[in-house]
Amino acid sequence: MLTQALLRALDKKAVWVIGIFLAVAILVPMANLLIPPGQFGHVPTYMVSLFGKYLSYAMLALALDLVWGYCGILSLGHGAFFALGGYAMGMYLMRQIGSRGVYGNPVLPDFMVFLNWKELPWYWLGFDNFWFAMAMVVVVPGLLAFVFGFFAFRSRVTGVYLSIMTQAMTFALLLAFFRNDMGFGGNNGLTDFKDILGAPVQAQTTRVALFAATAVALALSVLVCSMIVNSKLGKVMIAVRDAESRTRFIGYRVEYVKLFAFTVSAIMAGIAGALYVPQVGIINPGEFEPGNSIEVVIWAAVGGRGTLVGPIIGAIAVNLGKSWFTTAFPEFWLFALGALFIFVTLFLPKGIVGLWQQIFERRRKTPAPPSPSQSADVERGKDPASFSNPQPRPAE
Amino acid sequence: MLTHFLRLALLTLSLLLPAQFAQAQPTDIPARIAAMGEANLRELTSIVTDLAATGDPAVVPVLTALGGGNLYLDETSGRIVIQGRSAITDPLTGEEVDLGAGADLSRIRVNNSLRRDIASALAGMTLMSDNPATRFSAAQGFLAKPDPINIPLLDEAIAAETDSNVLRLMQAARAVTILSDSEAGIEDRRAAVPGVVAGAGRNAITILTGALANAPDELRPTIEAALAGLEQSRAVWSALQNVWFGVSLGSVLLLAAIGLAITFGVMGVINMAHGEMVMLGAYTTFLVQLVIRQSFPGLLDYSLLIALPVAFLVTGAIGVGIERGIIRWLYGRPLETLLATWGLSLILQQTVRSIFGPTNQMVIAPTWMSGSTDFFGLAITYNRFWIVIFALIVFFMLLLILNRTPLGLQMRAVTQNRRMASSMGIRTPFVDAMTFGLGSGIAGLAGVALTQIDNISPNLGQNYIIDSFMVVVFGGVGNLWGTFVGALTLGIANKFLEPYAGAVLGKILILVLIILFIQRRPRGLFALKGRAVEQ
Questions:
Q1: How many domains does chain B have?
Q2: Which of A124, A246, A259, B334 has minimal Cβ neighbours within 10 Å of its Cβ?
Q3: Which interval of the chain is the signal sequence (chain B) (predicted)?
Q4: ipTM for this prediction
Q5: What is the pLDDT confidence band of residue B200, given thresholds at 50, 70 and 90?
């Protein structure tokens, strides 16, 4: 059964994507460690870390795409799951500092000593253990998504209402994590990490290893998403996206399908966050900003939602653009980002991947008239969100 | 030699000048004060009488200090000084005096009869003053420092008083004096308690608590009962104060959310750039005031009123432009509209930031909006008051537009059933554009109001957008009353949670409560009822 699912999942495109990222996970570290600096083909360490960050963003965008592109749930709060996973990882890294902090307290992180706390709060217990922390990376975002989704989907909160609610969720968490007495470092967040699994975080080999881990995690995420999307459940997800009520009347428990997708997606986002934190060296409440979560949506939209490759391409492309813009024309980045939002929604509803497919298919199929099944496919793919929230079109 | 002489001359001149400009009997007051140092008690009495007879308010500190035992003679220099809590000051000018190292202060002694004289002299100058404000502050002084000696004076003043406010305070001062006088009879003291409660206002609790500490046992129950009553009424008043703060916050939310409710209700479009419309309205106000200040300074007090139509037209026009340029192409895809308008909000924010800079701008409040009033113990600031009134006006105007104009009729029709409305000949694209313009214009009006209570910065809109969403989602779509009830409920709930949970935690609680509420009623408080599966 599982092998069957695996085989089905490994359609041609998914194999390519997984293969590329596995190759990247091996080749880039080799290019960094084996080729000496200055020689052709050497990848500098800062570049490795930068792209490690992009890959964790790509994983977040893929997670969002699973719920938005395939299930029609526009979550404006995926940054919250990402940040929660990041905080779980950050708490582990904080505990690893031990007595090397500024105040030299072997148990309490610096900010707690600063706040005059006497002992570790209960929710920090166990985070000195790596595997416990990793379990929390999965459990905390997954549980939050499960509980939130359970209530929201059961009472049929859909469309923009759900989007606004997810935004409220991440906003509430933002406010909460800013509070000093929450015990998560308040405004400054968690930073000044030293070790991960005994290896210094700043060391070249650690950075390269983290990059490889991120690439492998991304490849695994693509595999998991591909398995889900190509399974029967995936077909139901797409049915929910395109005609939710019809799917419900046919007899599917729509809320459970949505809940499954939402929870899996949140867990993926949490893992992405956990991989992100040691590579950038800090996690603070700013990650909960509603604006960040909306930016993730635009990554997926730019690449092409409803595809597995699209969000990855989108996340890397937009973030490359961001890095370039913020150094070259810092004051124009927001103009560019805003214009990107408008341009993509107006002119590129299927994203870069959709554009490429369109060009490719037009060239190949120009002579033959499109078959009915294809035209239906195009029609549906043109605007998936509208079917989950049919707004009567104005008669024009 | 010559310079020395000149300096001396200048010094003399500078010493003489103030004396020459003093009121009645110019040289008298300093001379008499100087004479206090060597005077015996009888001479002091006559000096006090003389000083009081001048009627010059400048002698009040001297007499107060003398009565309070704070007036000293410096034996070395012969100067009379007041020994304050922190510094030694000149009795007439009130300026700090440096007596140097050789100072040898000795108190100018007074006896009880002289103190009584001083008190009555002071009372004559303050309690009996022609100016009600002086009388008021004198009574406040007696309230703060009760001394049984003053009772006859207070009685006299009460008999002569005409101003009801001052009279109440004087009676309170008398009651407090009796209450704190350990030599007065228990019955008298007990009878004084209601007087304290009635007259001392917000200080009554402190005064009574202080009196309770050294009251004899017979008196305690009365004071405790009075204290309990005061605590209860204070709880009621603080609840009322919270309601007022809540209404004030709610009206701001109402202003910010009502435009959003219209666009969302009619078009199903969540306009993420709504907050930026508010921000643009605020900047329009700033510009209008700038122009008025430079060209028509006489109209400065009316600049807000002039800014209202301007802001409405500017933001309304921008709204119509957005609808025609972007949103029109995205109908039927609400989630995409949300993204596109978010992008637009980023562009608008950055544009304003590039033009006006990231710093806060100031809009000066007109005189009729600054200050505050005391409404039965509720502190009500005028700017908040006018914003509440303004929010109500805007709300009812909008209600009128929706229910009494052809455009409103068409808007309601499109809200309820777009296709049917279109079939009946309503030009839905036109209605959409007008609705969006109206919603944006109202956001601009909200911006004008917000200039009075918030900083005008490019981020202004961001602070309100999530709260506005919450109001719309909570209140329900398609019914303005839903928005009204939603805004006020959220405002009041917020202000009631704040004292218990703190501002931030209160806000988090509100968000969590709304998220839970939406589970119960996914379409808000006042949902449009329809028979379709999906709305």
A1: 3
A2: A246
A3: 1-24
A4: 0.83
A5: low
